[in-house]
Amino acid sequence: MTNLNRNRSEDGIIDATAINTEATSSTVEAAGYSTATFYVDYTFGAGTNVELRVDQSNDGGTTWFLSQLGDASTPATYPLVELVVSKAAGAANQVYVTPPVPIDCSHLRARVVATGSPTASDVVTLDVRLGAHGSAVVAN
């Protein structure tokens, strides 16, 4: 068996960008990866929260789909809810890591915005680490 655990990082997919309006990252090739973990460096201005959304595409980035998760709190219907990673603003500068986001796409992008009454002083830099986990039998 060959271990297929592998990772790839993309730095600065959003690079020191004001998020008083929504900022969209560069497109990241994600084929063959199953998770995306985002590293957020947020400089607090006047916003109250930072929200991160992940879009996925299977056609090279022409059509984008919102990442969604099933809501297990209502198991009879298991409705889909938009995946939003939200962090309350606090100290002047915050660095945090999101939980791994499940992905199954050829390309992804992230959208980040500060909520409340943000200003151009609310700035974010965003990196992503893609992961693939599993194993496979390799024929000789």
What are the low-pLDDT stretches, counting only 5+ consecutive residues below 50? 135-140
Residue share in helix: under 10%
Largest sheet: 6 strands, antiparallel
The best one-word shape is: globular
Helix and strand pattern: EEEEEEEEEEEEEEE
Going by helix content, strand content and strand pairing, the class is mainly beta
**Taking Cα atoms only, what radius of gyration do you get, to the nearest Å?**
17 Å
Assigned CATH class: Mainly Beta
* CATH fold node name: Jelly Rolls
Report how far apart the termini are: 11 Å
Mean pLDDT across all amino acids:
83
Number of helices: 0
Give the number of DSSP strands: 15
Name of the CATH architecture: Sandwich
| Strand percent estimate | over 45%
Brief sketch in words of this structure:
Helix content is 0%, strand content 58%. By secondary structure, it is an all-beta fold. It has one domain (11-129): Sandwich (Jelly Rolls).
Give a verbal description of the structure.
The chain is mainly beta. It has a single domain (11-129), classed as Jelly Rolls (Sandwich), CATH 2.60.120. The protein contains no helices and 15 strands. Strands 3, 4, 6, 7, 10 and 13 form a six-stranded antiparallel beta sheet that branches. Strands 2, 5, 11, 12 and 14 form a five-stranded antiparallel beta sheet that branches. Strand 6 (47-57) and strand 7 form a beta hairpin. It is globular, with a radius of gyration of 17 Å. The model is unreliable at 135-140 (pLDDT under 50).
Keywords:
disordered C terminus; globular; 15 strands; Jelly Rolls; 5-stranded antiparallel sheet; 0% helix; mainly beta; 140 residues; 6-stranded antiparallel sheet; 58% strand
